[in-house]
Amino acid sequence: MVKDVDSFYGIITKKQNEANMSEPEITQKKPYVLELEAGDYWWCGCGRSKSQPFCDGSHSGTGLTPQKFTLTEKGKVWLCGCRRSGKSPHCDGTHKAL
Ligand code: FES
Question: Hey, where are the domains in the chain?
């Protein structure tokens, strides 16, 4: 039970902050289409990296994490830019509904 207005709004603000912190940002509503060499990569899962679509550590404190993927040979990839794909780090077409 909320006892006063300040407590009520304090609760709402806290809940909004928690929701914002766990929501990944949409950097673009289309995939990043890249030709990459074989190797290990870290896809940005929070959308806050300045090195899109790869992690630069900006997820720190958000509760969100990057996702590692490995290419065994050089190839073209379609990495999700909307952060809503069900097959991350790869685009699954979900961005078309945003
Ligand atoms: S860019 Fe996210 S599903 Fe296509």
Answer: 24-97
